[in-house]
Structures are given as structure tokens and as C-alpha cells.
Amino acid sequence: MMKSENPVGVLDSGVGGISVLRALTKLLPNEQFVYFGDSANAPYGTKSREEVLRLTFQTTEFLLKMNCKAIVIACNTATAAAAQQLREHYETLPIIGVEPAIKPAALFMNHPRVLILATPMTLQLEKFKNLAENLSDKATFKTLPCPGLVELIETGKARAPQTEEYLRTLLKEELQDPPNAIVLGCTHFPFVGQTLRRIFGNSVRLFDGAEGTARQLRRKLSENCLLAPPENPGRVVFRNSLHSDEKIKLMENLFFYGF
Ligand code: DGL
Question: Rounded to two decimals, what is the model's pTM?
Fold first, then answer.
């Protein structure tokens, strides 16, 4: 029987899900969180769906051993590849996924041009394609996989000149006819939000799924009578499959300072 004092488990292929964790702790300051970054196996976005499924189950088992009362899959790729199977397997466990914020981006103005940045796997999956197709009369979408960007962020280079150079080259064509909105469809990408603003200027709107995920977690915990009591001191514990001090330091820096 899960208790409301137990922690919430948050998982990602690496450090990206910390962009979601920041929104979770802001909305739910009394919760305890165990964040697990699977940096030893990052990136997920270029692996097979079966492999991501296996790794996501493995991490969920780890988090359950740490008595987590709910799981947040703070990874678009793992959500697309594994959320449904996890929910079928752990029937009573609240499992919250994160999805590219396509809808709010499509509806924020009249027929915007929306650029969706995500991993190759997220962009290939049927679920994602359906989401974009259902909104195709509301916005013009363009998708762009960003191979190598997750690795730059994983190695602490989110704000390095090398990353800005990478993005300027990748987005060269987009700059000819800039989008009105960019969907950050990978949880690593909010950490290059500032750089994207520098490249496109402040008129471009950036959308990610972090706040929506936090609201969904609050809703699910409340429905299951699992919200931490108000006297609970909130806390975050970081774990990483690489077991390196450097990685834990990077995770803390991203959590506290955003770089
Ligand atoms: N942060 C993840 C996502 O939201 C996965 C990135 C990766 O490992 O490829 O998709």
C-alpha cells in the first residue's frame, strides 16, 4: 500500500527530465522526488523502441524499490515508447508521461507556423504523427530531429558556444522564414531555450510540456489520495546510472540554475 509520504519517481534517459522536475517541485513543493537519469544509456531517441521499453521498465523497477508512489516519465521518447505498456503492467500505479506541447503551440495564435524539435524516435511514432495530423487545419507544422543535441546537453554543454554553433547550422533554413512557435519536444531541449531565443529573437514562442505534466501529476496524486501532507518538507534525491560525481553535479546545476 503506497503512502502519501512516499516519494515520486521521475525518470529520463539522462539529465533532460530535470526541466520537468523543476516544474514539478515548483507546483508541488511538499513532495519528495527521486530523479533517475539513465545517462549510461543516453540517448534513447536513436535506439529501437524495444530497447527503450526495456530500459524504462528497468528504471521503473528501480524507482519502485525506492518506494515511489507514482512515476513521472520525464522523457518524450520513453513516454511514446513505453507509457502504455507500463500502465498495463502496473495497473494501480499512477504513471504520468510527457508529450510534445503541440496543441498549445498550434492554438496560441491564428494558424501559426510551428517548428517541432524532438528526437528521431518521437517524430517517427504513430502517436506523435496522429497528434500533429489532428491539428493540421490549425497550424502548419514542420518537424526537425536534432541528432547530437542530447549528447551536447548530457555533457554539460547546453550553453557552450559549440552548441550555439550546432543550432545555428541546424536551423539555417528555418531562419529564412522563422516559425511563430517552437515546440521543445524533448525534455533536454528547454536547456537550450535561451540560445534558441538568441537565434530567433524574442518574438518566437517556445512551448514545452513541463507545466502540463506537473498539473497532471497533481491531479493524479489527488485522485489517488497520495498528495504529500502539507507539513512534508519537499526534497529531491538524484540518481544516475553512470554513478559519477560529475554527472550528479551537472544534474544539481541544471536543477538549481538551469545550466
Ligand atoms: N529527454 C528525452 C526526450 O524527452 C530523450 C532524449 C534522448 O535520450 O534521446 O525525448
Answer: 0.97
